[in-house]
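Complex 195.
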Amino acid sequence: MAQDDLAVAECTRCSELVDSRTRIVNGVGPADAEIILVGEAPGEREDAEGEPFVGRSGEILNDVLRDAGLDRTVVRITNTVRCRPPDNRDPTAEERSNCRPHLDAEIDAVDPSVIVTLGKVPSENLLERSVAVTNEAGTVESVSIGETVRDVMVCVHPAATLYDRSQRGTLEQTIVEAAAIAGNPSGDQTSLGEF
Ligand code: URA
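Predicted structure with uracil bound:
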């Protein structure tokens, strides 16, 4: 296992994922982002392109971020596990635990104001309890990650909005709240010059 704090260059801890992946998909975004979004695992497009959330879920995420005044480039985006599971199945408990040191090291290095967990897998991974994501979306819980107590905000997964349109508002609202906690990092500063 070779890694700097943000990126894993090599890892063979999960034999099934080593077989199913094309590459390790590391997080993207500023190394000092105020918001870190944690998804589940790379899908087919992410595995092909080597970047989280570049498929259909990524398009939804980008739209919601933009609507909240956040450009994708100002947030850090990563996943619970960095390798694509076979047939896009959920990562197992063992795989989540194998990948956890990578995630903790990334969170530690970025030191964000808020961590947003996109869906059940990352929410349960970081909160270490079962989570009813739809009911709990927008709630913030303080949890120890590594040596530090951090604010984790539960959020629905962007893909959930494809199956249930009513989830879209929940997703949007949660991202707006996360942006506010983080001090609206890409707040519309430029408009000040227009007056
Ligand atoms: N879904 C995720 O949870 N992560 C990705 O990177 C893409 C889709």
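The radius of gyration is 16 Å.
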